[in-house]
Write the structure tokens for this entry.
Amino acid sequence: MANAPKAHANPPFWRDERVLRLLAQVAFGAAVLIFGYFLIQNMVNGLRQQGTTLGIGFLQNTAGFDLAETLNNYTRSSPYFHAFLAGLYNTLLVSAIGIVLSTILGIILGVARLSSNVLVRGLATAYLELMRNLSLLVFLIFWYLGVFLKLPLVKDAVIWPGDIILTNRGIGIPWGIPTETWPAFKLFLFGGLALAILIIVAFHFQGKRTGKAPLAIVWAPLAFAAVAAAGWFLQPSAPLSLDLPAVQGLNIRGGRIFTPEFMALVSGLVLYTAAFIGEVVRAGIQAVSKGQVEAARAIGLTSFQTLRLVVFPQALQVIIPPLTSQYLNLTKNSSLAIAVGYPDLFYVSNTILNQSGRAVEMITLVMLTYLMFSLITSIFMNWYNARVRLVER
Amino acid sequence: MTKKLYPVLGLLLATAVLLAACGGSPAPATGEAPVVEQPTAAPAEIIFTTPSGYGVTLEAVQSRGNLICGVNSQVPGFGYVDADGNFSGVDVDYCRALAAAIFGDATAVEFRPVTAAERFTALQSGEIDVLSRNTTWSTLRDTELGGNFVHTTFYDGQGLMVREDSGITDIAGLDGGTICVQTGTTTELNLADVFAAAGVSYTPAVFEDADGTFAAYAEGRCDAVTTDKSGLVSRRTVLADPDAHVILDVTMSKEPLGPMVRHGDDQWFDIAQWTVFALISAEEFGVTSANVDSMMTSSNPEVLRMLGAEGELGAALGLSADWAYNVISQVGNYEEVYNRSLGPDTPTYIPRGLNSLYTEGGLLYAPPFR
């Protein structure tokens, strides 16, 4: 662009750089649109020749197949849409559990890698190197065929202390079954939760005002536990009755049973992603300049206080963006569930696709759903990142 | 950062709207005449090397001196060739029976292994005289592909395989159990249907491919694995300990397998069909390869008519009078053929089930020899 106004008339438009740039962009945009239109038209024509049209009405048709584990009341006579939802919930479940566990394990690994203890540091390093250089698919199949399916058969079930049953049909743990006093007890749980949130908020503001506040992470759960315990003993009878898993017929029943497919998928995803999160955490901690730590120690903070009050808040800004991509990776990698037979979103959609022959619709639906997951996670993590960003004055 | 996502969200929304619009729109504009060009021309273009007509196939076979039979060479129990080049299986033995009926010599047959893809072309083009290769009888194959199914020689169907030591013998025994199945197949749907109809609860363990399905079954993940019985049989032979697994006497879908001949030669069709009936009737009347000589003086007139000791039924088919005698003495009756390849003493054991005589609750039923 012309840097300074010139005395003579503007050049003709075909030599005006601004016009040319605009034209180039319009041309490019038009080319993209035409290409997209061509692709869609081609697809619609292809489908028409097969005698089908696009549409998602088929999702109302009866599915006809059974699914092993669902969080909704799906049966074989439910519509395809319910099967899709069952897969969606399973993916959300695996992702949520995976994100929580891999974050905890990742932080431990990241800190361990910086430990002054040679053994701890060496083990953490070895673990990270091993995991980061494995293929996740191979790792998942290893956990499935090599670990969880190698557990004893149902008839030789191993029972661990605490009534945990180990078989290759699943791992059963004792679980509570709600009794008639459960609804009343639930109110206490909500009350406890509200109190815990109140404590976190109050301590946060007190910390801002005085610079000294009790640890919310300790007191909030304690308050919740106290309210819950009070609620439990105030009920005429226990709100939950203990249900123990036991071998019954061909399978194990009762308690809460985690299938080998679920266990293999979660273990594989958590152990794999934790390695990457560990590296992210290590990088974040190392990004905090040494002077900050030395200064913190100089004013008499303990090493735990240094980590909590000085290092971590600064490390977080470095950690959050790559951590977000790890969370997204974990969610997207959960589609490898198909390799170990866990009915997640992709697996169920694949079955629907095969049974209904609606390839374009199902794949589009699956892509849109994963995109939604990723965008929602991104928006949340970006919001959180903006919050913890160092306010530079 | 968040703002950067808005265009993406917008695009997403646009795609969703577009998809919904596509879905909402009714059938394509009729003016464009979306004519579907199906490749219907293929069967019409088939040129038979022998002119079609009554009796030409038998004539060609007899002048050649042997029967050319299209078989499978990879499915133990049905059509299989061993390391020495010997063919075996129920489909293979049918070819021998047909050769015995025509020539009085069960060895006057040339086996030609054909793949699943080329089998119908081989039959249409006259490269083989008869196709006996675990082929499921279905409408399109019986019409558009230019062939006629002779008769069902093996009622296959979806089956269930369990560990022998589990003691499970029927669907009810699988109540509460887990069943391995392959995803996206009719097998998966049949499984759900049959168990729902029987009121038996089960948990499916569904896998992407056959290897994964059987690997999980082998590890004991499931109480049973389900696919077509012939598939179960051949899969069982490659399990670590094949004898530890049994295929239940349960059939969950219809897969009628049988030989197929070309359209256009009714005499050849009759010969092929009555060879099957001879095998079935022989079992029904208790005629075996061991006692067929003494049966030539049986008190049952139908046995006498079948074996050619009485009447002229052979001539009606264009064959010698002792055609059925030759079939039974050289190949055996249906039971002998079955037990040779699929019986309890073979590695590919399948309980008779539907393939029993109608007198024993099965489906095997031959018209009278009269």
Remarks:
- Chain A touches chain B through 53 residues (CB under 8 Å).
- Residues 80-152+259-388 of chain A form a domain with the MetI-like fold fold (CATH 1.10.3720.10).
- Strands of chain A lie at 158-160, 164-167, 170-173, 175-178, 240-243, 246-248, 251-253, 256-258.
